[in-house]
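Re: that chain you flagged

S.,

Sorry for the slow reply, it's been a week of failed gels. I finally had a moment to sit down with the sequence you sent. For the record, here it is as I used it:
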Amino acid sequence: MVAIIVMLTWLLVQLTKSTSSAVIAHVPQDQLASVHGRRMQTQTRLLARTLMTVIVIIGFAAALMTFPAVRQVGTSLLASAGLAGVVIDLAAKPLFGNLLAGLQIAFTQPIRLNDVVIVEGEWGVIEEILSTYVVVRIWDDRRLVMPLQWFIDHPFQNWTRSSSNITGSIILWLDYNTPIEPLRAEAKRLCEAAPEWDRRFQNLQVVDTSEHAIQVRVLVTADDAGKNWDLRCRVREGLLAFIRKNMPESLPKMRTEIRTEALNNLPLNGNGRQVAQHDA
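Prediction finished late last night. Pasting the structure tokens below so you have them in one place:
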């Protein structure tokens, strides 16, 4: 009897796995990177893994129930003052909590495979969504493993929730004498020459000031987060090179005012020349 249960459980798991693979294989390769394709992959794999987990649990329980001793122990425990129910509830809570979280993620889609997210202050890509945990590939190839329930209970940033297009910003602190129009024209030229720019939007504006400098912000768009990062680095380096070559006076500087009255009050040295106070 146990062998039949084990074989039936194995067949159901393999059938679920094959069905999942067949559904994903029917999605055209050019659509797998799209939002629709990633949604289908996520739902199919999560539902399949959740179903396989449930099949294994039911099969294991059915196999155990074939032994009379196990049934007797279970009956005696259930007959005790609810202690077994409390213990089982505490032990199964994390497992079933993650299973329910997996079902919720499969249908509501807060995350999908290959989504770009910021989790616990780390920028990464959703690499795997398994039955109980999610693997996030960090930008430096580290892996951050998070329980499924975490994505239901905590806020996080999803940069590709509705599309992979993204807008990035470049911040420069410059002197008040900086001419803005030549800088704006150079930013436009750099974007138009960059292969990462998606031609949607670019702009340069003075967005803030301090007692020493002005803050210039450049907004650029790209098809995804990786291209946007490269585009921002390219434009930032180009603007800095343009400023150093054509308007070095625009770099931030500290200004000091020296009054004539203060110079006239400096002491004289042996040659009759004024010296600073610390040289006197």
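What I noticed first: The chain has three domains: 2-108, 116-158, 166-250.

Talk soon,
D.
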